């Protein structure tokens, strides 16, 4: 045995003698690889010693470390989409390399944000789509949503109407995912997960560099419950090392209402009422000739200005910007001003191992809000054109006493309604490389959103109303933090990255409102709320808070840049839910295979092709407000005190049943996708098919009393499905030295269906055959239920009688049976073209919807002849021949449309001393729309349940058409 140990020792000694000289002949080389165009780090670049199998890949920060022969070696850097480069490894200095892009499709957007990290586009395994600034929509863009509207397959953005203060655009990714929760995706701005759409919509569009849209559940699972409806990652522009640069971007333009209803002029109105029995014409014919639609509208001015300064040196980079915009509304006394500041900076320290990052933004929005919706929804369509705006002495004509009649301009201009929003977003992060392959980091985030509104409506002469004053304050505050560990390593052809994250989120909301009536000094507006009738004062307030705590682990594996695996698991906990089910576990997995090298190596017209498969589960808590899982008490029912008002009793009672078993809504998603680049990148694109299902839907269901305190309870019952196909293509039709033509487009097919609304809770049946989701009515008509949520049918299916014509008495003839009709579009699409000729550029973008149906409730209201002379001054009232109008499929109209959404013509000046870039352009938005729909505009946000305008009313703010002249200038 001792002889065996002696032989072992001798062998070890001999090995050391041979190995030590060999090791002495090697040296370690480090460095970084970046994009030659923008300086961004390139992860996954192959670094190989020429003529050998020795090599490695760059990590997520573009850095590498490799042992090479000490007597000199040549390193070969190669990366799909870039020209290979050879560099001699000499001396002890780091080897820093910049690669030139060859613009192959799968890596044209080199780095894609995927949440808590980034990947090369060709390495992405989930359904992620990117859009950079060069592809943004042009024109009068103040709301950044306009930049990507219609550009991304599967993303439906509907901005209904032209109100500059509207922030309730319909945004959905891959259909509706809940029957009671919101459908809005999560917007993440430079790593800051926002708490509301307005924080993104108030961001200056000129500060945005790119968007990355995470669409399928396997991709969005990285953000857990907050990403249940999809995630839109927004990357803003950053400063770079080098000389300071000043950028200016701005435009000025005008906008007008794009379409008007046909109203009667004074002569037509007088002729229409002269033969109506019992009508005293002198009461109505006052010498005026006014189109009240046009009386309250104007040609509106819009301008936007953004100035940014950026630069950096010695490991420090920065960018600061100031934005000011003015957007007048096409309706008078309505508009929006915004002043925003944004600053971001990065500082490297400790031999570039430590990176400190700071992002700050502060935005103030001043609103002149639409003062009186009755003006646009009732008065302008009822008030006779023969009534003048002003009396002979210059005062407002207000000789109206009917509820539906008033001087629209008087109401509009004399009502005071202003709001101011203050938004602050800030985050600070520190990331430290413990080892070349191991990094730790932490981030702190603060978001504060305050809105204060002021309202005063005067006493209108002859209308008998009391003046009213009101102030409202809303505060939303969020504290967020996370800590993370990242590991990146390569072993030959094997590449591994792993991430572990801890998150803490605290959300606080509070509101306050004070209101009063009958003020003796109206000049004080809302500034002396105690100065009215004290017996009519009203004060309300509220405050809520909830927390979400999450744990996340993710692993990415890549073999030879061909085989990919991404797996993650996230555990979310929220105190919105019952004590028995506050936490939910949500896994996801993706695999991908790039088979150009293996199967299509000899097919010259295929540049690259990748197949993706994904599965993921995410939770959703948006259907619940805080405290809906516990017993709540409140004041009992009001009772009439025998005097002039209703009073609350002094006792309290149960107002909500508890449910300690409330659970997360669960969305399970499956996705199969194909990314490809063909014909030397002349044609590229991606195709995705998805099949998603939402289980355990949250809704307020009816229950018996007793044993329950009240007759409803929040419970997890029911399910729905989303199935769809997305196709996005980009083609370089002409690719020349002086002239190029690029065409791109996307089309999305989506089908959402309710599969169940039934279940049980504690032995009690919770079910519903159908749930009412909207109703509509005409003036003087009772409300009629229109759309429902019904198992086996799409979301918001209509249930209507069939219209069979009008009899000789002017009465509507309807069938005896009701029919279910799907109003949802068959598909959505967008088509863009960009032409470049020397210094000129021309682009235009069409956006459309096919198969959509919209219930034209205004047409129902306008069609009734008997409304003259007091309640309808539209020409439809004269031509319909109806004396009896009832709700039916007569007013469910084909609302398919094709819209020329925007077009721009620009010229870029070159070789101007002191100016590195100068571009002037002319652009238009909503230039025309082709549709059979009879209303003002067929674009209806999903939240309105496909009823034109607010339920039972006329659209409160028509869509606008805008033209602008703009400039982009850079000084360096």
UniProtKB/TrEMBL annotation:
TonB-dependent receptor plug domain residues: 121-231
Membrane topology field: Multi-pass membrane protein
Gene3D superfamilies noted in UniProt: Carboxypeptidase-like, regulatory domain (2.60.40.1120), TonB-dependent receptor, beta-barrel domain (2.40.170.20), TonB-dependent receptor, plug domain (2.170.130.10)
Keywords on record: Cell outer membrane, Membrane, Signal, TonB box, Transmembrane, Transmembrane beta strand, Transport
Entry's Gene Ontology cellular component terms: cell outer membrane
InterPro entries in the record: Beta-barrel_TonB, Beta-barrel_TonB_sf, CarboxyPept-like_regulatory, Plug_dom, Plug_dom_sf, TonB-dep_OMP_SusC/RagA, TonB-dep_OMP_SusC/RagA_CS, TonB-dep_rcpt-like
Primary subcellular site in the record, as a coarse category: membrane
Protein family per UniProt: Belongs to the TonB-dependent receptor family.
The name this protein goes by in its record: SusC/RagA family TonB-linked outer membrane protein
Organism expressing this protein natively: Mucilaginibacter conchicola
Organism lineage: Bacteria, Pseudomonadati, Bacteroidota, Sphingobacteriia, Sphingobacteriales
């Amino acid at each position: 045995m001792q002889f065996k140990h002696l032989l072992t020792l001798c062998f070890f000694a001999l090995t050391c003698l041979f190995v030590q000289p060999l090791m002495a002949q090697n040296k370690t080389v480090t460095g970084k690889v970046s994009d030659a165009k923008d300086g961004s780090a390139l992860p996954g670049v192959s670094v190989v010693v020429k003529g050998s199998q020795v090599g490695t890949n760059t990590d997520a920060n573009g850095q590498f470390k490799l042992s090479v022969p000490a007597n000199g070696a040549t390193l070969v850097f190669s990366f799909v989409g870039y020209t290979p480069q050879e560099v001699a490894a000499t001396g002890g200095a780091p080897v820093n390399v910049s690669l030139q892009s060859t613009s192959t499709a799968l890596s044209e957007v080199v780095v894609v944000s995927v949440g808590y990290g980034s990947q090369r586009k060709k390495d992405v395994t989930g359904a992620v789509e990117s859009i950079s600034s060069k592809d943004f929509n042009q024109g009068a863009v103040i709301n950044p949503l306009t930049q990507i509207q219609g550009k991304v397959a599967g993303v439906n953005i509907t901005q209904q109407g032209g109100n500059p203060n509207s922030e309730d655009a319909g945004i959905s990714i891959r259909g509706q995912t809940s029957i009671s929760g919101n459908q809005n995706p999560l917007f993440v701005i430079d790593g800051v997960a926002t708490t509301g759409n307005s924080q993104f919509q108030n961001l200056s569009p000129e500060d945005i560099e790119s968007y990355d849209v995470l669409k399928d559940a396997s991709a969005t699972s990285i953000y857990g419950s907050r990403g249940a409806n999809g995630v839109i990652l927004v990357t803003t522009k950053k400063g770079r090392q080098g000389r300071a640069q000043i950028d200016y971007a701005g435009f000025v333009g005008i906008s007008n209402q794009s379409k008007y209803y046909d109203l009667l002029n004074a002569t037509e109105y007088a002729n229409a009422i002269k033969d109506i029995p019992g009508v005293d014409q002198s009461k109505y014919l006052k010498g005026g000739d006014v189109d009240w639609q046009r009386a309250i509208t104007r040609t509106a001015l819009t301008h936007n200005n953004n100035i940014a300064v950026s630069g950096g040196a010695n490991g420090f980079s920065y960018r600061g910007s100031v934005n000011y915009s003015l957007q007048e509304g096409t309706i008078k006394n309505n508009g929006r001003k915004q002043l925003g500041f944004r600053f971001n900076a990065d500082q490297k320290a400790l031999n570039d191992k430590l990176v400190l990052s700071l992002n700050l933004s502060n935005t103030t929005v001043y609103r002149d809000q639409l003062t009186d919706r009755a003006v646009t929804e009732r008065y302008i369509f009822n008030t006779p054109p023969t009534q003048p705006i002003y009396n002979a002495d210059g005062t407002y004509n207000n000789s109206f006493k009917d509820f539906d009649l008033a001087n629209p301009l008087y109401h509009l201009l004399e009502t005071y309604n202003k709001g101011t929003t203050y938004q602050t977003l800030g985050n600070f992060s520190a990331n430290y490389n413990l080892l070349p392959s191991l990094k730790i980091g932490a981030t702190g985030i603060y978001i504060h959103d305050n809105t204060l509104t002021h309202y005063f409506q005067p006493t209108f002469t002859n209308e008998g109303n009391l003046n009213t004053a009101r102030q409202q304050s809303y505060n939303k505050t969020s504290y967020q933090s996370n800590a993370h560990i990242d590991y990146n390593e390569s072993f030959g052809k094997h590449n591994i990255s792993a991430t572990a994250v801890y998150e803490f989120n605290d959300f606080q909301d509070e509101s306050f409102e004070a209101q009063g009536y009958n003020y003796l000094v109206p000049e004080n507006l809302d500034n002396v709320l105690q100065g009215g009738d004290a017996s009519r004062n009203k004060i309300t307030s509220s405050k809520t808070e909830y927390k979400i705590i999450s744990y996340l682990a993710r692993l990415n594996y890549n073999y030879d840049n061909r085989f990919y695996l991404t797996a993650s698991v996230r555990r979310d906990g929220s105190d919105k839910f019952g004590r028995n089910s506050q936490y939910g576990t949500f896994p996801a997995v993706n695999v991908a295979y790039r088979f150009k090298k293996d199967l299509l190596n000899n097919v010259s017209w295929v540049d690259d092709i990748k197949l993706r498969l994904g599965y993921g589960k995410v939770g959703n808590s948006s259907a619940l407000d805080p405290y809906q899982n516990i017993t709540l008490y409140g004041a009992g029912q009001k009772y009439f005190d025998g005097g002039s008002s209703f009073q609350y009793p002094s006792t309290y009672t149960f107002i909500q049943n508890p449910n300690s078993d409330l659970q997360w809504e669960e969305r399970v998603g499956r996705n199969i996708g194909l990314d490809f680049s063909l014909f030397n990148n002349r044609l590229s694109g991606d195709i995705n098919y998805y099949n998603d299902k939402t289980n355990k839907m949250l809704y307020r269901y009816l229950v018996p009393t007793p044993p329950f305190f009240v007759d409803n309870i929040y419970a997890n019952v029911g399910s729905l499905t989303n199935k769809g196909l997305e196709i996005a293509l980009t083609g370089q039709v002409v690719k020349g030295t002086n002239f190029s033509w690029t065409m791109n487009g996307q089309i999305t097919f989506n089908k959402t269906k309710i599969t169940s609304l039934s279940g049980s809770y504690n032995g009690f049946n919770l079910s519903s055959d159908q749930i009412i989701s909207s109703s509509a009515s005409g003036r003087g008509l009772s409300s009629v239920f229109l759309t429902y949520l019904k198992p086996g049918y799409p979301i918001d299916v209509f249930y209507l009688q069939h219209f069979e014509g009008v009899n000789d008495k002017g009465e509507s003839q309807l069938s005896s049976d009701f029919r279910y009709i799907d109003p949802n579009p068959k598909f959505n699409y967008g088509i863009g073209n960009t032409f470049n000729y020397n210094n000129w550029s021309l682009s235009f973008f069409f956006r459309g919807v096919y198969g959509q149906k919209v219930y034209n409730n205004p047409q129902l209201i306008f069609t009734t002849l008997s409304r003259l002379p007091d309640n309808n001054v539209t020409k439809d009232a004269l031509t319909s021949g109806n004396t009896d109008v009832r709700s039916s499929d007569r007013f469910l109209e084909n609302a398919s449309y094709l819209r020329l959404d925007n077009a721009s013509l620009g010229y870029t000046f070159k070789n101007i001393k002191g100016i590195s870039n100068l571009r002037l352009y002319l652009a238009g938005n909503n230039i025309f729309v082709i549709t059979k729909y009879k209303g003002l505009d067929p674009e209806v946000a999903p939240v309105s349940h496909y009823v034109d305008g607010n339920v039972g009313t006329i659209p409160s703010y028509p869509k606008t058409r805008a033209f602008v002249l703009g400039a982009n200038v850079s000084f360096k």
